[in-house]
Amino acid sequence: MSKEVPAPIPRLTVITLGVSDIRASIVFYDALGFSRRLKATGEAVAFYDTGGPVLALFPWDLLAADASLPDEPRPTTFHGTTLAWNCRTRDEVDAVLAFAVGKGARLLKAACETDYGGYRGYFADPDGHAWEAVVAPGIEVGEDRRVHLAE
User: Domain of life here (predicted)?
Assistant: First the structure.
């Protein structure tokens, strides 16, 4: 009789972005203020403490090869994924967008009201990865910078 293996506990621990120029991406994410860790990896890969899941930057072609996916063609527009920078207030959303643009991001969409009672805008990093700066009902950002969801 075989013993049933318990299901693993689901968790999201790392988000890895494929980047075209890792040096430029490191400069950009450093400028946004994320804290780089494991700097001994040099420019092979970069890891950032985000207050939640780790953000990793990895050369696009090597990431594709690692996942056994083709390197070409690369999407030239929307990648089908967004990253979110949840904020405490609407003013903070505006500040995040202005800050990111000041560090080299491209504004995709100015902040505006949402149909669900929130407020958000979008910017793109140097590789076009879309980031949403947002404040939303039921999602709070604690003093620990972690997102806390209403039940």
Answer: Bacteria
